[in-house]
């Protein structure tokens, strides 16, 4: 965490609705449009003289100077429609995350103006969706509309803008009543008081009084240079069930039915529940058919422990400890972990038990999980996880090699754990290969898909100048070649030039699969070899009619039906389309 440098700090404020901008209609509060226009009239939110002197664009507001050399400028994106946050769902939160992603390069930080009723859910979900966050994201709102004489909206919004503008706190945070909390640690505790939120198991990251006090030890560190990854594939079939004394097993049974894939069980005290055999049996059966059950206490403060038989009975029925997570964070984490592609059930449970975004406090001796102990690679990753803070340098040095080994072996779980550690999956190992090279060489389509989704360079060259595409061609991995081509991979001029000799060699061995792989990668099958002859010449001379026919059909542009169509690579530099979210427009 650092105080932000530079004379101008640009922020994007995404206005989704909530009481802060609400107006009374027929006696009830409903979301109100035009927040930016209101802010423009309030001197604490806009310095019109400075804006005119600098010729700022119409949609840009500028705060009065907080310190002499720095100005915080901001643009308000107003969503359409605006929501009472009671109507917000994962769909809207995914759109907010994607808006941040689209504008990530343009702004130094982000403020999300949101209703308070579901703000703790929103902050939790966003914290998991935004991986490798290197900029400040702050959610805020109000208990009383900003137009009212006595309101908390002005202070909250101003504080959020100033903190996001002046500090780099690379987390999803929530600012309310002079306190900046980690977003996935909060819960709403009051319907009326301005101190609406509390963070029961983690002190605030910052407090604002006459001075701003940042709790530096708590702020998460940026690790690696990995780019922002937005996980939009959150699982929606997750639920929350609060136990109460005497809850019937039949009711629990109904609740746990498919399509539910994961549930947060709110239990008593330190994670205890009724020990009635029929209830435990329902939980056990659900867990055995693959439902993931996370045990969170319904107490405001404290964690799930194994102190009581009534708690260990739940663990015995297959529930996973949620430690001191809030229910909001646990639900968001379930949705995130169950939405990750390509993981086994054990791998998902492994991630759920880990602290991924600072959402849970792990016991001091964090035991290595059995699923990670199973393989040599898993052991390596598990050891890395257990290294102390001081050994981070060693860890950083080992990560590229481990990532390459995991990629080659198709071990998505190990890669996911490395990513969760903040490891940069684009780094080269000692041989100069990236994990994408290794996955391509190993024919690991699942890993290639994951790495491409993370935006890794599809045309990275290893120390010998080889591309992932060439390694996939050599391995004849058609699925991987297709994925790489669709992501814009091309053989380099050198690889294309060298292909002639290789094609002749394949033709002489009647290796049709090898020839098809080159064709699929975009090679010109007429490319001459070192002696000037093409693969077709070689096949004809050898009298191999099958190869001759294949080469003629491929060279003639008639794709082999058995191979399936090869989609042309998209033009380079095409980013995610559209600039609107929830119908959002700058105002
Ligand atoms: N204070 C608030 O913002 C409450 C409002 N119902 C909302 O969540 O949108």
TrEMBL record:
Residues 237-340 form the Asparaginase/glutaminase C-terminal domain. Exhibits lysophospholipase, transacylase, PAF acetylhydrolase and asparaginase activities. Can catalyze three types of transacylation reactions: (1) acyl transfer from 1-acyl-sn-glycero-3-phosphocholine (1-acyl-GPC) to the sn-1(3) positions of glycerol and 2-acylglycerol (sn-1 to -1(3) transfer), (2) acyl transfer from 1-acyl-GPC to the sn-2 positions of 1-acyl-GPC, 1-acyl-sn-glycero-3-phosphoethanolamine (1-acyl-GPE), and other lysophospholipids (sn-1 to -2 transfer) and (3) acyl transfer from 2-acyl-GPC to the sn-1 position of 2-acyl-GPC and 2-acyl-GPE (sn-2 to -1 transfer). It catalyses: L-asparagine + H2O = L-aspartate + NH4(+); a 1-O-alkyl-2-acetyl-sn-glycero-3-phosphocholine + H2O = a 1-O-alkyl-sn-glycero-3-phosphocholine + acetate + H(+); 2 2-(5Z,8Z,11Z,14Z)-eicosatetraenoyl-sn-glycero-3-phosphocholine = 1,2-di-(5Z,8Z,11Z,14Z-eicosatetraenoyl)-sn-glycero-3-phosphocholine + sn-glycerol 3-phosphocholine; a 1-acyl-sn-glycero-3-phospho-(1D-myo-inositol) + 1-hexadecanoyl-sn-glycero-3-phosphocholine = a 1-acyl-2-hexadecanoyl-sn-glycero-3-phospho-(1D-myo-inositol) + sn-glycerol 3-phosphocholine. Residues 11-219 form the L-asparaginase N-terminal domain. Its EC number is 3.1.1.47, 3.1.1.5, 3.5.1.1. One of its GO terms (molecular function) is 1-alkyl-2-acetylglycerophosphocholine esterase activity. Keywords: Acyltransferase, ANK repeat, Hydrolase, Lipid degradation, Lipid metabolism, Repeat, Transferase. CDD domains: L-asparaginase_I. GO terms for biological process: aspartate family amino acid metabolic process; lipid catabolic process. Coiled coil: none annotated. Substrate binds at residues 85, 116-117. This is 60 kDa lysophospholipase. The gene is ASPG. Monomer. InterPro entries: Ankyrin_rpt, Ankyrin_rpt-contain_sf, Asp/glu_Ase-like_sf, Asparaginase/glutaminase-like, Asparaginase/glutaminase_AS2, Asparaginase_C, L-asparaginase_C, L-asparaginase_I. It is an enzyme of class 3 (hydrolase). The lineage of its organism: Eukaryota, Metazoa, Chordata, Craniata, Vertebrata. The active site is at 116. It holds the Pfam family Ank_2. PROSITE patterns: ANK_REP_REGION, ANK_REPEAT, ASN_GLN_ASE_2, ASN_GLN_ASE_3. In the N-terminal section; belongs to the asparaginase 1 family. The keyword Nucleus does not apply. ANK repeats lie at residues 431-463, 531-551.
């Amino acid at each position: 965490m650092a105080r932000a440098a530079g004379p101008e700090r640009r922020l994007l404020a995404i206005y989704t609705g909530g009481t802060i901008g609400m107006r009374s209609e027929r006696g009830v509060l409903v979301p109100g449009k035009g927040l930016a226009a209101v802010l423009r009239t309030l001197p604490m939110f806009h310095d019109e003289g400075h804006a005119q002197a600098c010729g700022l664009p119409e949609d840009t507001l500028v705060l009065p100077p907080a310190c002499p050399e720095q100005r915080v400028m901001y643009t308000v994106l107003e969503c359409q429609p605006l929501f009472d946050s009671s109507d917000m769902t994962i769909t809207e939160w995914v759109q907010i995350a994607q808006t941040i992603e689209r504008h990530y390069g343009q702004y130094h930080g982000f403020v999300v103006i949101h209703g308070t009723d579901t703000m703790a859910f929103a902050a939790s979900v966003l914290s998991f969706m935004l991986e490798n966050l290197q900029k400040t994201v702050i959610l805020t709102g109000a208990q009383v509309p900003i137009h009212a004489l006595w309101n908390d909206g002005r202070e909250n919004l101003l504080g959020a803008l100033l903190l996001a503008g002046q500090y780099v706190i690379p987390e999803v945070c929530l600012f309310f009543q002079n306190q900046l909390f980690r977003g996935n640690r909060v819960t709403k505790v009051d319907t009326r008081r301005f101190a609406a939120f509390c963070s029961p198991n983690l002190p605030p990251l910052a407090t604002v009084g006459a001075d701003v006090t940042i709790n530096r030890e708590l702020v998460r560190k940026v690790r690696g240079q990995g780019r922002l990854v937005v996980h939009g594939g959150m699982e929606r079939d997750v639920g929350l069930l609060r136990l109460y004394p005497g809850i019937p097993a039949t009711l629990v049974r109904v609740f746990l039915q498919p399509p539910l894939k994961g549930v947060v069980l709110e239990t008593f005290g330190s994670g205890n529940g009724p020990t009635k055999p029929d209830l435990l049996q329902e939980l056990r059966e659900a867990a055995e058919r693959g439902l993931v059950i996370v045990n969170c206490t319904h107490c405001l403060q404290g964690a799930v422990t194994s102190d009581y038989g009534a708690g260990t009975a739940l663990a015995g029925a297959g529930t996973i400890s949620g430690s001191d997570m809030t229910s909001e964070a646990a639900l968001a984490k379930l949705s995130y972990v169950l939405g990750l592609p390509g993981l086994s059930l054990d791998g998902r449970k492994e991630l759920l038990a880990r602290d991924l975004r600072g959402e849970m406090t792990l016991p001091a001796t964090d035991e290595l999980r059995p699923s990670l102990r199973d393989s040599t690679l898993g052991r390596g990753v598990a050891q890395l996880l257990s290294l102390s803070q001081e050994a981070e340098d060693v860890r950083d040095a080992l990560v590229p090699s481990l990532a390459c080994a995991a990629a080659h072996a198709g071990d998505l779980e190990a890669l996911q754990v490395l990513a969760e550690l903040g490891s940069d999956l684009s780094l080269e190992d000692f041989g100069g290969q990236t994990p994408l090279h290794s996955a391509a060489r190993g024919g690991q389509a699942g890993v290639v898909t994951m790495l491409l989704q993370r935006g890794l360079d599809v045309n990275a060259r290893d120390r010998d100048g080889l591309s992932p595409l060439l390694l996939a061609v050599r391995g004849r991995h058609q699925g991987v070649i297709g994925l790489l081509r669709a992501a814009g991979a091309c053989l380099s001029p050198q690889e294309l030039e060298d292909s002639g000799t290789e094609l002749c060699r394949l033709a002489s061995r009647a290796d049709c699969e090898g020839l098809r792989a080159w064709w699929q990668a975009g090679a010109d099958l007429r490319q001459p070899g070192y002696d000037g002859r093409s693969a077709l010449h070689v096949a004809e001379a050898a009298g191999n009619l099958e190869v001759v026919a294949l080469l003629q059909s491929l060279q003639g542009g008639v794709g082999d039906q058995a191979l399936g169509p090869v989609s042309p690579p998209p033009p380079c530099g095409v980013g995610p389309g559209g600039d609107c979210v929830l119908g959002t427009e700058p105002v």
